[in-house]
Write a structure and sequence with these properties.
The protein contains six helices and eight strands, in the order ββββααββαααββα. The chain is α+β, with helices and mostly antiparallel strands and 182 residues long. The chain has a four-stranded antiparallel sheet with strand order 1-2-3-4. It has a two-stranded antiparallel ribbon with strand order 5-6. The longest helix is centred in the middle third of the chain and has 14 residues.
Length: 182
């Protein structure tokens, strides 16, 4: 049985008070009360078994109130699910292709974006296939050949869509800029 080594129980003998309820065998969500573990500062701790098989000690009232719902396995699964999106890691290490996809959608479809006037206001959009699916964008564009490449529209007045986009270096992109009014 895995116990939290930080818990130093004042007593490991079960309470004898008339209001003590032996919860052995009771189940709350994913957790089953296995046996009395001990008392710490008057709080009653129980040896618990999670549906995933992990055994640990927990404060009984937190289990009953729903404040402790698992050994931590549920949090791990939720964290893993929220740490990825479309198979790409979120946060500081998201893929450059995913970042690019988010950026092109923002510049074309978010009127609050600081450079929206260069894109969305000019009628440039992201095709529905890409706008609704990172997987489709990645399938059509592939991975960036190097960190020095960025997305480029072959027709600078055209949309972000297959056939009008490619990965290019900054030098190549400078050659393909639209002429801006002075």
């Amino acid at each position: 049985m895995r116990f939290n080594p930080a818990i130093q129980f004042d007593s490991t003998s079960p309470p004898t008070a008339h209001n003590f309820i032996d919860r052995t065998g009771e189940k709350y969500g994913k957790l089953e009360f296995i046996s009395f573990a001990g008392r710490k500062c008057g709080q009653i701790y129980w040896n618990m078994k999670c549906d995933c098989g992990t055994e640990f000690a927990a404060y009984g009232q937190n289990v009953i109130r729903g404040l402790t719902t698992s050994c931590g396995c549920v949090h791990s699964v939720k964290s893993s699910a929220t740490a990825t999106c479309h198979g790409e890691t979120r946060g500081l290490s998201k893929s450059p292709e995913y970042s690019c996809w988010v950026q092109i959608k923002t510049r074309c479809h978010n009127p609050n974006y600081r450079e929206f006037h260069y894109y969305g206001d000019r009628g440039i959009t992201v095709c529905d296939r890409w706008r609704n699916s990172f997987e489709a964008f990645l399938e059509d564009m592939g991975r960036k050949p190097s960190p020095h490449h960025s997305i480029d529209r072959i027709d600078p007045d055209g949309n972000y869509e297959p056939g009008n986009c490619r990965w290019v270096t900054a030098k190549q992109q400078r050659k393909n800029q639209r002429k801006r009014a002075s």
